[in-house]
Predict the structure of 1-acyl-sn-glycerol-3-phosphate acyltransferase.
Amino acid sequence: MAGQDAEREAESSDPRAAQGAEPGRPGATYLLGKIIMAPIARVIYRPHVNGRKNVPKKGPVIFASNHLSFIDSIVIPLMAPRRVQFLAKNEYFTGTGFKGWVSRTFFQSIGAVGVERGAGQAAQEALNQGRGILESGSAFAIYPEGTRSRDGRLYRGRTGVAWLALTTGAIVVPVGLIDTDKLQPVGSKIPRIHRVTVSFGEPLDLSSHGPAESGRARRKATDEVMEAIHALTGQELANAYNESPPAHTIERVKRAVLRRERL
């Protein structure tokens, strides 16, 4: 885990790597989805939404949220007071036939941008996509924890959020999601009827921490963001980085070796 964290922070520190392909802005499909889905969601699920006034109406904004469920990436765009885009794995956009069309149309309707996921160059390209969205003056959503929390605790933030903010000058709006894991638990394909809370915190200007090239500045800025998220959710702090479950035996062995090396 430590090796992965260092690798990601090193990738995020290279300003020369920030020239990714400029992503498209949300179009008619997104607007139609927002117009139709948001009112239906409010009537059926009756979410508590707090702090909408904290979201700047114009300019680049990063929504930095805790992450409890797959449905978080639907809840935020539907409840946010302005258009917001986020990254989703490319497979959602490349399917064929009717099923592929449904998947592609749905994710476009909620503002998703396809990206290859992974470490190394793939991770940097994901950040480049986010930078392109922000530099176009749009809003971009990111989960600093990196992946969903499976035990409900709030994990330590990775510094990509700070790199984006310090590189683009974007304001960060912390987002606190409560009970979205009960709305759609891990492994569940259909959302349940459960009331959730979405809180938009006061905007943060992270520029005082220093330049994006500074690892210390990125770390301090990220910690400020995570503290703001924690104030909104009240989650138990894990004081560690979150990781996805190992995909196969080789990955489990690698992680076991890394843990022994750190002892």
Remarks:
- Strands lie at 48-50, 61-65, 84-89, 112-115, 139-142, 171-178, 197-200.
